Amino acid sequence: MRSALAVALVLSMLLQGCLSGVGGAIDDVVPERRGIPGGLALACLMDDTYTSMVVEIDHAPNRAPEASTVDLLIERLDEVCTKPGGITVDLQETEFDDLATWTADDVRRVALETRAAPPQDGDVLRWHILMPEGTYDDESVLGVAVNAADIAIFGESIDASENILRRPSAEEIENSVAVHEVGHLLGLVNAVYESPRDHEDKEHPHHSSNDASVMYWAVESSSLGAIFTGSLPDTFDEDDLADLADLKSGAIQATDQLWTP
Fold it and tell me: How confident is the model at residue 231 (pLDDT cuts 50, 70, 90)?
């Protein structure tokens, strides 16, 4: 029971953080058309203009992503995005501002300062992940998606979330956080579209009601908190994948896009 509760609390923190980031970005879009999470979903899903993709990961000296996280990000994106020129990850060790705590606006500012090239770079789509030292201003936050191409993942908070049994391990938590935040950049769930499938958690918008989806929100109870058993999910479920396929085909109309075919 203790390990199940630990998993529950980790997943709850994982998803709570990204909801704050998504909400903040939707309510306070910065002036230069950096958009909202999901604003470059069609650019990723389709290959009309962007035939290849780079995920730039700028990390603090002691915060390089796990190899499994890099591999998993490529695998998940390759499952849904059409990029005949390939999807690659560009790792850059970066000296960030000396911030003990980060806000969504800090993430937006530093992402703009550190990125190697703009998100829409010729025929290359570029998404950007920051992995700094420090924590979010709500220490329970593990990751945030702040606009159409920028994510931050807080490794210090991920490490602190690992229990003594390492079930789940910090590596597994990082895997799920990374895929979850990329899911928000893809527009999941109902961030830039309305799904014909009833799979959004109405109490926690833009999250799946299915606990087998990486986009799941673990709802806290009034006493013990969210109970989630088994391994942390790191895959999109059938409804997530169907939404993305419908966005790609045009069966679902996407809104708030920085690029359209």
Answer: confident
Which tokens in the block code for residue 22? 């998504």
Question: 101-102 and 124-131 as β-strands: parallel, antiparallel, unpaired?
Answer: unpaired
Cα gap 105→8, rounded to integer Å: 29
Q: What residue spans define the domains of the chain?
A: 2-249
Q: What is the pLDDT of residues 95-138, one digit of tens each?
A: 998 899 999 999 999 999 999 999 999 999 999 999 999 999 88
Burial class of residue 23 in the structure, from the number of CB atoms within 10 Å of its CB (0-12 exposed, 13-18 middle, 19+ buried): middle
CB neighbour list of residue 223: distance below 8 Å, 6 or more residues apart = none
202: Cα separation from own chain's centroid: 19
Strand spans (E) along the chain: 52-59, 87-93, 101-102, 120-121, 124-131, 135-136, 143-145, 150-153
Residue 229 in this model has a pLDDT that exceeds 90:
no
- Residue 34 φ then ψ, to 5°: -85, -10
How far is CA 157 from each of CA 1, 82, 162, rounded to the nearest angstrom?
23, 33, 9
CA distance 91 to 106: 21
The amino acid at residue 249 is: S
Q: What is the CATH number of domain 2-249?
A: 3.40.390.10
The proportion of the chain whose per-residue pLDDT surpasses 70, expressed as a percent, equals 81
Please tell me the distance from the alpha carbon of residue 140 to that of residue 179, in angstroms, as a whole number.
Answer: 18
Degrees, nearest 5: CA angle 213-243-20: 60
Q: Is the dihedral of CA 41, 149, 34, 189 positive or negative?
A: positive
Would the pTM of this model clear 0.85, i.e. be above it?
yes
